[in-house]
């Protein structure tokens, strides 16, 4: 894990899988965009200590475990405040809320595997809010529909956008077998909206900094990647298949072998968004046969 300053005030913390944005006018007290995985929080603390940087505020793009994992650790060790979109916060402020994220996992297993995610932010990004202030400086907000309930991207005062999970770079796409979207059609629409952004650079959590001249290509590549995965899954569908049969066919096609129950449940959630996309697009019909839910093409 390392920190590289791109400008006098904007830096990137690179972990094994992620790139997190940092803004600090004096490089002593800073704002952190997302906090990464929980299991890497110890390394994050060590890096910040080495750099002499205290995180005053964590601003989350959304509530997924690779973005909020070290929030409470930073609150404990740095007295960091936490800010996140309100609808994202609603899902992780209690065990019952977290159950809505991991709907197919029993509550006690959620507590055991994801209990560190349960938290109450100190402040919220409201629906339609266009900016927020930190230390007297203004940060712009772009609301992105589709990836999660209320994903937000942020622009720093020095012109850099932190895009969170709105785009993934080419290197990450090679290993992303089932890219995630909460509502795929809205996610694709939000990706297209990124083409209107103006900035000095665009930081993707997965993973890396994109130059302005490369943004259009990256947006188009991401849309093609998501649509391509959807087409690949659609071609696997045979009339009369159950969701479990579809899931197993997809796992075989992509060479996926779930490593544990959490991984299995997460992959099942990923599949669900594509099934919804097919049905909303009129490409797939659900029906009951002898009390069992099955699917067929029109």
Task: Please give the structural blueprint.
Blueprint: E1 2-5, E2 10-14, E3 19-23, E4 29-33, H1 41-51, E5 54-59, H2 65-68, H3 71-78, E6 81-85, H4 86-90, H5 95-101, H6 107-114, E7 123-125, E8 131-134, E9 137-144, E10 151-155, E11 160-168, H7 170-173, H8 184-193, E12 201-206, E13 208-210, H9 215-236, H10 243-254, H11 261-280, E14 285-289, E15 292-296
Parallel strand pairs: 4-5, 5-6, 6-7, 11-12
Antiparallel strand pairs: 1-2, 2-3, 3-4, 8-9, 9-10, 10-11, 12-13, 14-15
Helix pairs in contact: 5-6, 8-9
Structure description:
The chain has 298 residues and is an alpha/beta fold. The chain has 2 domains: 2-226, Ribonuclease Z/Hydroxyacylglutathione hydrolase-like (Metallo-beta-lactamase, Chain A, 4-Layer Sandwich); 237-296, no CATH class. The chain is built from 11 helices and 15 strands. The chain has helices spanning 41-51, 65-68, 71-78, 86-90, 95-101, 107-114, 170-173, 184-193, 215-236, 243-254, 261-280, and strands at 2-5, 10-14, 19-23, 29-33, 54-59, 81-85, 123-125, 131-134, 137-144, 151-155, 160-168, 201-206, 208-210, 285-289, 292-296. The strands form 3 sheets. A 7-stranded mixed beta sheet has the order 1-2-3-4-5-6-7. The chain has a 6-stranded mixed beta sheet with strand order 8-9-10-11-12-13. It has a two-stranded antiparallel ribbon with strand order 14-15. A hairpin with a 4-residue loop joins β10 (151-155) and β11 (160-168). The longest helix is centred in the C-terminal third of the chain and has 22 residues, at 215-236. The chain starts with a strand and ends with a strand. The relative contact order is 0.11. The model has no long low-confidence stretch (mean pLDDT 95).
């Amino acid at each position: 894990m390392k920190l590289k300053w791109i400008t006098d005030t904007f830096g990137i913390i690179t972990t094994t899988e992620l790139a997190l944005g940092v803004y600090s006018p004096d490089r002593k007290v800073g704002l952190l965009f997302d906090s990464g995985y929980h299991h890497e929080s110890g390394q994050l603390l060590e890096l910040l200590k080495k750099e002499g940087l205290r995180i005053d505020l964590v601003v989350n793009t959304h509530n997924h475990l690779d973005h909020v994992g070290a929030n409470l650790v930073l609150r404990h060790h740095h007295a960091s405040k936490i800010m996140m979109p309100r609808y994202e916060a609603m899902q992780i402020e209690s065990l019952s809320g977290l159950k809505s994220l991991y709907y197919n996992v029993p509550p006690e297993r959620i507590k055991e595997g994801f209990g560190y995610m349960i938290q109450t932010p100190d402040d919220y990004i409201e629906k339609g809010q266009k900016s927020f202030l930190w230390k007297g400086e203004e940060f712009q907000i772009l609301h992105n529909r589709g990836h999660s309930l209320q994903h937000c991207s942020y622009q720093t005062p020095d012109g850099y956008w932190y895009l969170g999970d709105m785009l993934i770079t080419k290197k990450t796409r090679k290993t992303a077998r089932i890219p995630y979207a909460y509502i795929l059609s809205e996610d694709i629409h939000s990706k297209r909206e990124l083409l209107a952004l103006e900035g000095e650079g665009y930081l993707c959590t997965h993973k890396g900094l994109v130059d302005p001249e490369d943004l259009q290509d990256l947006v188009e590549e991401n849309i093609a990647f998501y649509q391509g995965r959807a087409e690949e899954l659609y071609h696997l569908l045979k009339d009369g298949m159950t969701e479990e049969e579809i899931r197993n066919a997809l796992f075989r096609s992509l060479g996926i072998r779930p490593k544990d129950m959490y991984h299995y449940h997460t992959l099942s959630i990923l599949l669900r968004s594509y099934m919804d996309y097919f049905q909303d697009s009129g490409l797939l019909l659900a029906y009951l046969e002898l009390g069992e839910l099955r699917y067929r093409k029109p």
